[in-house]
Amino acid sequence: MFRMRVVRALLVGCAAFLLTSGVGAAANFTPGSAGLGDPFFPNAGNGGYDVANYDLKLAYDPATDVLVGQAVVTATATQDLSRFNLDLRGFQISRLTVNGAAAAFARDGQELVITPQTGIPSGSNFSVAVDYSGVPEVIVDPDQSIEGWIPTDDGAFVVNEPQGSPGWYPCNDNPRDKATFDFAVTVPEGLTAMANGVLVSSTTTGGRTTWVWKETDPMSTYLATSTLGRFDLSITTMPNGLPVYVAIDPQLAKGQVLSKLVESVEFYTGLYGPYPFNAVGAIVDSAKFVGYSLETQTKPNFPYVPNEATLVHEIAHMWFGDSVTLTEWPDIWLNEGFATWSEWIWSEEQGNKSAAQWFKQLYNTPAQDSAFWNPPPAVPGTPQFLFNGTIYYRGGMTLQALREKVGDFTFNRILRDWATQNRYGNVTTPQFIAHAERISGQDLTAFFDAWLYQVGKPTSW
Ligand SMILES: [Zn+2]
Questions:
Q1: Rounded to the nearest whole angstrom, what is the distance from the C-alpha of residue 310 to the centroid of ligand 1?
Q2: What percentage of residues in the chain have a pLDDT greater than 70?
Q3: What pLDDT shows up at residue 255?
Q4: Any idea what DSSP says for residue 70?
Q5: CA dist., res. 156 & res. 150, Å (int)
Q6: For the chain, what is the radius of gyration of the CA atoms?
Q7: Around ion ligand 1, which residues have CB less than 5 A away?
């Protein structure tokens, strides 16, 4: 963000260059790629630019299910762009501008193909404004779970892992392109709209309330939320002063388990290093049919009152998943294995079953139970196995086996340094292996190969 001023000067300079050198220069301007080549979702995300901020003004009326959006995407070109794409599913677009000038656009599946009046020089800052409206389409994943903007009895439950975001806002839908977010969500008076980061204001006029939220830390598109409905919202503060936002659907019994929220944040802070974000929270909705919880940044979404293990799992994701994020989706164990092990160490800390006991119990699963042991955590193979049990259990077991191999002291340093050194970044499995080898001073090639890459039950560690 600090580069913006320099970038704006560049834009002016390059525009002048274009004017004087005419067709010759324009010929070097090429389209940004339509996808970023993720092994599971190759068309998600787009090439040629890097998003700095999403400014989303949304209005939603549960009575009609119509979402009206005004999105401004601010980005920096990473090549000389003749045109570029955003990802957006459905909706009618009423107006689209680039740097304030009307731009041509076309739709092709989830690709919104935008051709500005003049090319955008590499390194220059630009903004795209998209006005859109319609009934959001709920997205069905390869594993048949639903995501995106999911209507509930009193609003919407909004979750996007891995590909729901284009179901409600235009974006560069790839976990690598992190950005800051501003939200202004307008709903009928009486409803509460939650989003990531800090609550700036809520203002009611003419029977409608606008909730303004600001996420100033970098966030991957899939971690954004705008869950809304009837909620009891409590705003408190952590002992260190961070705001804590807990929204609970009044239809639900107030979850006692949420009293563990602050304690779990403090526990993981002690273990993994400073909490990465500007707010803490939870959104507990009555939407059981969704079937899963999600670690939306700063405020995990729960479709029912979570049990303690689920609560702390999602909180641990703030370090592993949200701050330290996978680069490509097949590396999902870097999110889920870490969150699962975090459940076990919480249990151990509370004086309940230890991580070693969790490991032992799961390890007793016979090798013949191939559905338990496969696919290996770092090789899910196909997107329908992204959230398979083995990613969680065998991923968590990999970490516990590593703990037993290198000892508590070294293991703790491996996790803590991983969280600290890769804060707000993107990571890969080979990077984690190299990191663990560097800190432990051990050759862990065979260990990680057996636990992460090979089918079947690992036999040693
Ligand atoms: Zn998880």
A1: 8
A2: 94
A3: 64
A4: E
A5: 5
A6: 23
A7: 336, 339
The whole-number average pLDDT for the span 65-93 is 98
| Alpha-carbon span 119 to 83, nearest angstrom | 7
Residue 84 backbone dihedrals phi, psi, to 5 degrees: -155, 170
> 368 CA distance to ligand 1 centroid (A)?
26
- 314-317's contacts with Cβ under 8 Å and 24+ in sequence apart are 314/282, 314/339, 315/261, 315/264, 315/265, 315/268, 316/264, 316/268, 316/272, 316/342, 316/343, 316/346
CA-to-CA distance for 108 and 416, rounded, in angstroms? Answer: 43
- Cβ atoms of residues 5 and 52 within 8 Å: no
Coil vs helix vs strand at 412: helix
Q: How close is the Cα of 315 to the center of ligand 1, in Å?
A: 9
Structure tokens at 120: 């955008």
Q: Name the nearest CA neighbour of 183 among 170, 200, 166.
A: 200
Read off the pLDDT of each residue in 272-297 and give the average, rounded to a whole number.
Answer: 97
| pLDDT digit string, tens, across residues 250-276 | 999 776 778 899 999 999 999 999 999
Report whether pLDDT(356) > 50.
Answer: yes
**What band does 22 get if pLDDT is binned at 50, 70 and 90?**
very low
